[in-house]
Write a structure and sequence with these properties.
Helices cover 39% and strands 13% of the residues. The chain has eight helices and five strands, in the order H-E-H-H-E-H-E-H-H-E-H-E-H. Strands 2-1-3-4-5 form a five-stranded parallel β-sheet, with helices on both faces.
Length: 238
């Protein structure tokens, strides 16, 4: 074997050469899970993380979950200016206080790394629906998603919204928030939503069952993987 042949063999071993050239380097994939109680009940280790790791076995997967039960979207969107429920948790705190903490956790988890892809999964809205604040929910939800993309400097961030369950179907504000969540998700080129109607038990409880939380994590993961399969899409256009 000549020196030139040996060099070519070594190069192909390092870069897995083929007709298309070298394969991509290992990617860093960031997944954010946030919202209120029904997201709080999801244990990523039981359902979400195994699914995304299986889908991207050669990449570095970072999962950050931060959710707080009973919280209105006002506490997650820093530019909130509309009315709010004075009885809600943290009503005396400035808008977006929980969002600030979420971003701090993300920053810590990704320190020294630049994610190649980001998926933001959101399960929230029960508090706003029960407080009769559906009229301001769409603006806040769009604003939250825009903030995530802007603050992470990731305009192609994909987002998955968990639609409110059928707990209070037929009530004006509950139905309105459900409709808004689907509208925002389907109207975004990098968006998707998951159905939660069958996850809260036969009595249509507010919260998912134990098995429902596991399934919710799997559904978020499945949509996240599906969206990342469209990575060649242009930046999101909500």
């Amino acid at each position: 074997m000549s020196h030139r042949q040996l060099f070519t063999l070594i190069a192909c071993g390092f870069f897995l050469c083929n007709g298309a050239g070298a394969v991509d380097a290992k990617k860093v994939r960031l997944f954010i899970l946030s919202g209120q109680s029904n997201m709080e009940g999801v244990n990523p280790d039981n359902s979400f993380t195994p699914a995304v790791v299986k889908a991207f076995p050669h990449d570095e997967v970072i999962v950050v979950k931060f959710a707080v039960g009973g919280t209105p979207i006002r506490r997650w969107w820093k530019n909130w200016t509309g009315p709010h429920d004075a009885s809600a948790s943290g009503a005396d705190l400035p808008p977006g206080d929980l969002y600030v903490e979420l971003m701090e956790r993300v920053k810590k988890a990704t320190e020294g790394k630049k994610p190649d892809s980001v998926v933001f999964s959101w399960m929230q809205g029960e508090r706003d629906a029960k407080s009769g604040l559906s009229e301001s929910y769409q603006q806040a939800l769009k604003g939250l998603i825009a903030s995530v993309r802007e603050d992470l400097k990731q305009p192609a961030t994909a987002m998955v919204i968990g639609r409110l369950s059928d707990h209070q179907n037929g009530q004006k504000h509950w139905d309105a928030v459900r409709d808004i969540q689907v509208k925002v998700a389907t109207g975004d080129t990098r968006g998707a939503w998951v159905d939660c109607d069958d996850l809260n038990g036969p009595k249509n409880d507010l919260h998912c069952t134990k098995e429902g939380f596991v399934e919710l994590g799997k559904r978020f993961a499945a949509k996240a993987v599906e969206l990342l399969g469209k990575e060649n899409n242009p930046p999101a256009q909500p």
